[in-house]
Amino acid sequence: MKVYKFGGASVAHADNILNVCNIIALEKEPLIVVISALGKTTNAIEKIIHEADTDKAVKMWDELCDEHKTIAKKLNAEEHSIVYLDEYQSEGREIIYDYSRRNSDEFYDQLISKGELMSTTIVVATLIERGLSSKWLDARKMFRSDERFRSANIQWRETEASVQDMINDHVQRYNVMVTQGFIASTRDGRTTTLGREGSDYSAAIISYCINAESMTVWKDVDGVLTGDPRIFPNATLISQLSYEEAIEMTYYGAQVIHPKTIQPIQRKEIPLNVKSFIHPDRNGTIINAAGGLLYPPMIVVSNNQYLLEFSSKDFSFIAERHLSMLFRKFNHYRIRVNMMRNSAISFIVCVSAEKERLELLKEEMAYDFEIEETTNLQLVTVRHYNQSTIDFLTKGKTVLFEETHDITYQMVLK
Ligand code: ASP
Ligand code: MG
Fold first, then answer.
1. Ligand 1 in contact with 297 (CB < 6 A)?
2. Looking at the CA of 36, which ligand is closest?
3. Which of 10, 65, 290, 301 could disulfide-pair with 277, CB 3.0 to 4.6 Å?
4. Ligand 1 contacts CB of residue 264 (under 6 A)
């Protein structure tokens, strides 16, 4: 069996959804399809959550649900979807009304997951309308997670068993099984999510559980490029990449695939294709154990970085005691450490995080440390670097912090 994953951009409008259905229809063998929320739906729901304690929220929610129904109507897919879409809409309203009584990360997951539930409902209804034998599967019944809402951890053993059961139950009768990316549930049935952009990871989990023949991520670019084409118009396609190289690139922030995607499929040596849904006939990138022979310099840019410099207030040297205290807090506030250096009296880190969480950290640490912060920075990572690439990237910029290790060059730029 093969696993396909379609992200939000590939199902943003009715035309795109038809395109996705065409790509699915070309596959002759049984197929498992993992789909994200339509277009920017997840961002839209985040806005609603932000307004959840105001009168606006329900109105915004109803508008979003109406947009989904309009798309279903355009696709002639109303008959097989309207009952469910109505149900999600009213469940969503209940969740919004309930807001004040809930832990907010849990509340977030209950509402945000509706995006994927609605998108997959529409896609399945469209496939059925077009005569393809397809089945909608509830990801919450397959993916078991812990209770870390908004960035839940998969419970692999239980998930493997339930994914296999669910797929085995349906594979004889249906050619196409469609499920939601991004969402899971706790053992007692409360919805969780795997972290923003987590649908690639969902597809990798399924691929792992069923020993898929291959997994394909369908994107609006031709595959994995040497840099983000919006920043580097001369970026070129990398046709073959090893798992290790892909893990490194995504770890440093390459947006083409979610960083957690590679490890499960590497474990089972499942080839991962990254292909364009606009030009499905093109080859794209294949990620496998063999990889490429020689790699060109590959650039990953991450914006919104912070440089924090901690110095101890009691004139003591920065030592393990300080570092372990800081790292416990980084973990607690989900602050990601991208680069670091310690000297006798200070500890410098380049981090990325939600602004609110960073403020909480600083507040808490201000008792023990003098903290200096520089904001709005860029972290640039180059794999297989050469001097001309570094010169090109640093031209007209100030390098605040840099580090080289083996074939990787990292720098924080202002
Ligand atoms: N819809 C979710 C998000 O936008 C998950 C995904 O697209 O992968 O973050
Ligand atoms: Mg998305």
1. no
2. 1
3. 10
4. no
The residue contributing the CA closest to ligand 1 atom 6 is: 197
Full-model pTM: 0.90
Give the closest residue (by CA) to ligand 1 atom 8. Answer: 197
Contact 227 CB / ligand 1 (< 6 Å): no
**Burial zone of 103 (CB within 10 Å; 0-12 exposed, 13-18 middle, 19+ buried):** exposed
Residue type, 25: A
Domain count, the chain: 2
Determine if ligand 1 sits within 6 Å of the CB of residue 198.
yes
Among 212, 243, 260, residue at a domain's last position: 212
Closest ligand to 217 CA? 1
Half-sphere exposure of 249 (CA within 13 A, CB side): 27
How close is the Cα of 337 to the center of ligand 1, in Å? 23
Structural domain for 88, as ranges: 2-212
* Alpha-carbon torsion (371, 377, 383, 388), positive or negative: negative
The tens-digit pLDDT sequence of the chain (414 residues) is 999 999 999 999 999 999 999 999 999 999 999 999 999 999 999 999 999 989 899 999 999 999 999 999 999 999 999 999 999 999 999 999 988 667 689 999 999 999 999 999 999 999 999 999 999 999 999 999 999 999 999 999 999 999 999 999 999 999 999 999 999 999 999 999 999 999 999 999 999 999 999 999 999 999 999 999 888 999 999 999 999 999 999 988 888 899 899 999 999 999 999 999 999 999 999 999 998 888 999 999 999 999 999 998 888 888 888 999 999 999 999 899 999 998 888 999 999 988 999 999 999 999 999 999 999 999 999 999 999 999 999 999 999 999 999 999 999 999
15 and 138 assigned to the same domain: yes
- For 131-160, give the DSSP string: T--EEEE-HHHH-BB-S-TTSPPB-HHHHH
What CATH number does the domain containing 402 carry? 3.30.2130.10
The CATH number for 66's domain is 3.40.1160.10
Query: 16-23, long-range: CB within 8 Å, 24+ apart, which pairs?
Result: 16/277, 17/71, 17/75, 17/122, 17/123, 17/126, 18/75, 18/126, 19/277, 20/123, 20/218, 20/277, 21/123, 21/126, 21/127, 21/130, 21/132, 23/218, 23/277, 23/280
Query: 309: CA distance to ligand 2 center in Å?
Result: 34
Q: Give me ligand 2 centre to Cα 122, in Å.
A: 16
Q: Of all atoms in ligand 1, which is nearest to the CA of residue 198? A: 8
